[in-house]
Design brief:
The structure holds two protein chains of two kinds. By secondary structure, chain A is α/β, with parallel strands linked by helices. Helix content of chain A is about 40%, strand content about 20%. In chain A, strand 3 and strand 4 form a beta hairpin. The chains are: A alpha/beta, B alpha/beta.
């Protein structure tokens, strides 16, 4: 009979389609993973000038010093010997490696910008310096 | 005829959404501590952990801020740090200085912090991104 009720059929599939949801979620995760390092601020522990000045050299302990001075005219002195930035990159890790205290003392002239100081600080830290001491000027050494 | 393979997408979706939620919760906490924009030096090395800290900001134009509050002088900074150190002497102090400032200016801040009793001082940096 034409008036007979047709069997009800759900036109939509009963399974939840998660493909698009997964796509969006994974895209968000990737986006966050790329963007997060840009938001994060990190840092390097430093010894304040007071600490560096206050620490006397112990005559009983033989330690190899790693003392870097950045002059106003762009020169770099490593333990009072002028070196090029490339040579500093070579020598500083060797000095740190041989130093029991792994201390690096960085002093600068009065016209040296912070970015330049931080580059040396970063280099020292990358090469395993345990204590980074910043000095106001060379006379403090 | 073989039935189509049944791919279990639900666990992947759950993990993905959980990660998104975690990141959405963490990111404001990270960003909100440093609302004063400063061009921080980029470094490869980093050792700071996420923990509560005192943020000292020194901007390119010479403004000195302590936790985003403008300070008039270094002595005011020292007094404020002394007060905060009484609560927790081992609190981390992050000095966020602009790359263009002079090193001696940052050293003045470090000296002041040290004299005020700061023990754990961190030079604020941003992680260097290759390429």
């Amino acid at each position: 009979m034409w008036l007979r009720r047709r069997k009800h059929q759900n036109p939509y599939p009963t399974e939840l389609i998660l493909n698009s949801l997964v796509d969006i979620a994974l895209c968000l995760v990737i986006g966050f993973m790329i963007a997060m390092p840009l938001f994060f601020e990190t840092g390097i522990f430093v010894s304040a000038p007071g600490v560096a000045k206050a620490a006397p050299d112990d005559p009983n302990v033989s330690d190899i010093k790693a003392s870097v001075f950045l002059s106003n005219d762009g020169r770099i002195l490593l333990n009072d010997v002028e070196v090029t930035p490339e040579r500093l990159t070579e020598l500083l890790p060797k000095l740190i490696e041989r130093s029991p205290s792994r201390r690096v003392v960085i002093s600068t002239g009065d016209q040296v910008d912070y970015a330049r100081t931080m580059r040396v600080l970063d280099l020292a830290k990358q090469n395993g310096a345990a204590d980074l001491a910043l000095l106001r000027n060379r006379s403090a050494q | 005829m073989k039935p189509p393979p049944n791919l279990e997408i639900l666990p992947i979706a759950a993990i993905g959404l959980t990660l998104v939620l975690i990141m959405m919760v963490i990111s404001p906490l990270v960003v909100s501590q440093n609302s004063t924009p400063v061009n921080l030096p980029r470094t490869h090395a980093s050792e700071r952990k996420i923990e509560s800290s005192i943020n000292i900001t020194y901007t390119e134009d010479g403004r000195l801020l302590l936790d985003d509050v403008l300070l008039a002088s270094l002595s005011e900074l020292g007094d404020s740090i002394v007060g905060k150190m009484k609560k927790d002497p081992y609190m981390m102090i992050v000095v966020r200085a602009d790359t263009t400032v002079m090193t001696w200016q940052v050293l003045d801040i470090l000296s002041t912090v040290r004299r005020a009793g700061g023990l754990r001082i961190v030079a604020g940096t941003k992680k260097f991104r290759e390429g």
